[in-house]
Amino acid sequence: MSTLANDVPADAAGARPTSARVGRPARRPGRWTSIGGRPPSTGIVVRTTVLTAGALAVLAPVVWALLSSFKSPDELARRPPTPFPAHPSFGNYAQALTSFDFGRYFLNSVLVTAGATALTLAINAMAAYALAKYNFRGRDALFVVTLATIMIPLQVIFLPVYQMVSSLGLVNSLWGMIIPPAATPTGVFLLRQYMLTLPDETIEAARIDGAGEFAIFWRIVLPLCRPALAVVAIFSVIWRWNDFLWPLIVAQDESVYTLPVALARFSSQLVIPFNLVLAMSVLSIAPVVLIFLALQRQIVSGIAQTGLK
């Protein structure tokens, strides 16, 4: 009678698999074992536990606001509060959209975010290109000073910036919210670090072929910097959409309110039901969350390619 090992065909070298020789199937790694079959180290377990706890702590308020936006006012006032709505309904969202001028505030936020992001990409890309590919006296010192402005609190420069905006007649306008935060040292840093990786020979070859400086920047440098530009654009969208303090200072009329400002103004009024405020809050954060979930891979790859640890 033949054994199991004799029934299994041999490979090219004449050797049979180990599992066939011992007469049992190959052992697969368990769920909590590594490829070599060893359990994960204590450091990996601790790191995973800490990161999971931190993620749950960050997501807990968002989940609570999302679940509470489907509750009635009486259910929100119940003590102790219940985690899940007893009778979930989309009526809060419908009432929030009809009670407030949500469409105008949403459009203002879109215009401010889109305009500021476009200016941020244009200004930061040109500044980064000059700091990365041009040799001039004081270039490194200028870059250090640009990075040093990250440490300056925004509240310190609000007064001079507001005076400049007021002298230009941009107070209580969307342009007053778009122009001041356009240039960011973080964007200049990310784009410069990426442009340093571009070969200088490509730019020199374009100059030899007769291309102008703007043509080189527009047709060669910018297409090669798409990953870094995508990262800066995503960061700018998140920052401008959630910006509250500067639009609060500039906006003096409800017609130019952005969503964060309108939400803060309406939530401070006692006549506004809290369930409608929660519904409006969920609607205001939904676009940013969706953008982040859709483009998180580009964010990670772009940051990795810029060399930012």
Automatic annotation (TrEMBL):
Q: Where are the transmembrane segments?
A: 44-67, 105-129, 141-162, 174-195, 216-239, 270-295
Q: How does it sit in the membrane?
A: Multi-pass membrane protein
- Taxonomically, the superkingdom here is Bacteria
Q: Which residues form the ABC transmembrane type-1 domain?
A: 106-295
Q: Where in the cell is it found?
A: Cell membrane
The family database entries (SUPFAM superfamilies) matched by this protein are listed as: MetI-like
**Looking at the record, which segments are called Disordered?**
1-38
| Alphabetic keyword roster | Cell membrane, Membrane, Transmembrane, Transmembrane helix, Transport
InterPro entries the record matches: MetI-like (IPR000515), MetI-like_sf (IPR035906)
Q: Please tell me whether the keyword Ligase is annotated for this protein.
A: no
Q: Which PROSITE patterns match?
A: ABC_TM1
Q: Which GO terms describe its cellular component?
A: plasma membrane
Q: Which GO terms describe its biological process?
A: transmembrane transport
Family, as annotated = Belongs to the binding-protein-dependent transport system permease family.
**Protein name listed in UniProt:** ABC transmembrane type-1 domain-containing protein
Q: Which organism is it from?
A: Gandjariella thermophila
